[in-house]
Amino acid sequence: MVTLADGGGGKSAAELVEKIFLPHLSNPILSALSDGAVLPKINGRIAFTTDSFVVDPIFFPGGDIGSLAVHGTVNDLAVSGAKPLYLSAGFILEEGFPIEDLEKIAKSFGEAAKECGVLVVAGDTKVVARGGADKIFINTTGIGIVPDGVDISAKRAGEGDVIILSGTIGDHGTAILSRRKGLNFDSPVVSDSAPLNGLTAVMLEAEPDIRMMRDPTRGGLAATLTEIARASGRGIVVEEDLIPVNENVRAICELLGLDVMHVANEGKLVAFVPKNSADKVLSAMRKYPLGRDAAIIGAVGGAPGGTVEMKTSFLGRRIVEALVGDQLPRIC
Amino acid sequence: MKYLSEFRDKDVAKNICSAIKAESKRPLRIMEFCGGHTITLVKYGIPDLLPPEIELISGPGCPVCVTSKGEIDAAISLAQKENVALVSFGDMLRVPGTRTSLLGAKTEGADVRVVYSPDDAVKLALEHPSLKVVFFAVGFETTSPVTSAAVKFAELSGAENFYVLSAHKRTPPVLAALLADEVRIDAFVCPGHVTAVTGTDVYGSLTSAGKPCVVSGFEPIDILASVLCIVRQFNKGEARTEIEYSRVALAEGNVRAREIMNDVFAERDAVWRGLGLLKDGGFKVSEKYKKFDAEAVFGIRAVGDDKETPGCICDKILRGVKKPGDCPLFARACSPENPVGACMVSDEGTCSVYYRYGGKTIAE
After folding, report:
1. CB-based burial, B276-293: b 16+ in 10 Å, e otherwise
2. Residue of A113, A302, B44, B357 with fewest CB within 10 Å of its CB?
3. Full DSSP string of B12-46
């Protein structure tokens, strides 16, 4: 079990770092164990992002808080058009947290970083008294480099741009819900938690002038689309029938009264692409495993500025709004 | 998905719509009582598919919305007590009481927790014998049997520290009230899940007043088919109760569920937000189960005030007299982020549904 001394900066803290973290995260910059990592000279525009991870439960079908903490930050860099290079990792542990669990998380953190091709160059561990935190929280900060000619911004979404979604939506949120206390149910749905930097690289290679990309995490696709509509002042129209959803995810959402448009994803992206290069980008995405189910789901234009509308599978049209508060099942 | 895709089929919908258009002969004001129906209507854009002479009016069928301020205040006062955990469904947390909501009280330090089922509240009580667990029970005849079952579970499992604060509502009195109201309704699309428990006898007062009643499911085809049934009843000069939702609801309802509900609960007068005090409009915990009754044990009363915030017209919206777009606060001062009135709070509240699935267009 993790003790308060493990985060104290003394001998047992050093042991924790050496035994648990270094074997999985080691690289020359980190292994120097200096107070600050000194990075080689970077040429170009730097993308910089930070995110904290407090997911509950910490182990879920398709991933855990360790891999998620890597994917989350790497994906934020990737959809900014950057090639992710370096990560920092801050761990806040609750006193009494099982060492075996910490090892599992360190391992999956290390494996995820390797898969993404990023180096973990700085880290920190703190332990707080029992009840001071819930099991484990992780913060990751990432640095990446944006290639020349790439300019990803919501403001650049323009009339006629085609909207591409990289795959099915709702997998992460429903996988987490299926394991949440008080709502445990058996389901074959696994989280889609995955790194997107490989996918964004092939997309930007096919069309460097992609206007906007974002990964629809908390708040789901609805939040992402409404944010982009508001930031760009453009109207967006998507078609319900074109949005890929796993049949099991659809069933769980029906059962719990959730709108899949509001359910979180951790390995998907939406891209706003110039109309003329949409096919080129789509076929590049489909050749890549994480983009196998990629689909054109709509376009910019045809709705009042700042709003998102959906042509429903039925016959009508409706407004897509971001969710307010927590997503909760129906009560009657 | 089987049992769903059939009820969302475009071609079937087109056929029903053509039949409605061909057979509709007079203006009809049809009230859909249930918030679940309102969601389907707005989400699928059904009003646009109907001929202009058929108007659909949302009724007071959202249990969260009709919970009175007095009931919310009572729940808050219990949540603020030492060693009491107030447990409820998530939707209840943001409903404004007189001064604050349960969420506001939680932020101020009250012990407010969310469960997905009343049984989970009993389990919480069993896990923490020294904590007094109060389940804030809301809902119509769809949820009151479930609360009843939880009370029986508490009794069987010896959960001496489990209590129910009942804000449960009974639907028959509200139907009578709507009939007497200023809003003129020609026919009713009746709630499928409530009827699955109550049976169709409860609609007798409506049909004898010449109002056709059709018990409907919650998919778009269900609602369209129900509207067609109503049009046909008018054409034949009939007013009877029909069950469109025959895959779930039976004419006799669920006898077993009613038995357990009537064992654990007793009728009482209750304040419906927007409608005021309705005779026999609610349920309190029965004498037999008094030891589980939070009102008796803690000496409080979950009734009282139904005055709305100035400017808010939720009372008129709940009765179908006004629509969300008629309210000066709608999508301006009042939004799901900052609900002023109850109709904006719950996912099934009329204003919230209009805001989320079409509110902007309506407000502009």
Report:
1. eebeebbbbbbeebeebb
2. A302
3. HHHHHHHHHHHH--S-EEEEEEEHHHHHHHHHTTH
- Asked if residue A29 belongs to a domain, the reply is yes
Interface of A with B in 256-285 (CB under 8 A): 257
A-B Cβ pairs (cutoff 8 Å, strict): 86
Is some CB atom of chain B closer than 8 A to the CB atom of A255? no
Q: What is the pLDDT of residues A56-108, one digit of tens each?
A: 889 999 999 999 999 999 999 999 999 999 999 999 999 999 999 999 999 99
> ipTM of the predicted structure?
0.72
Q: Is A181 on the interface with B (CB under 8 A)?
A: no
The answer to whether domain B1-310 has CATH 3.40.50.11740 is yes
Question: By the CB < 8 Å criterion, does A319 face chain B?
Answer: yes
The tally of domains found in chain A comes to 2
User: CA-based angle A149:A221:A283, to the nearest 5?
Assistant: 50
Instruction: Give the start-to-end residue ranges of the domains of chain B.
Output: 1-310, 314-363
- A184–B contact, CB cutoff 8 A: no
How would residue A323 be classed by pLDDT, with cut points 50, 70 and 90?
confident
Residues in chain A closer than 8 A to B66 (CB atoms) = none
> Which has the closest alpha carbon to A259: A174, A180, A132?
A174
Among residues A97, A124, A146, which one ends one of the domains?
A146
Minimum-distance CB partner of A332 among B43, B49, B142: B142
Same domain, A74 and A8: yes
| Predicted confidence band of residue B15 (pLDDT cuts 50, 70, 90) | very high
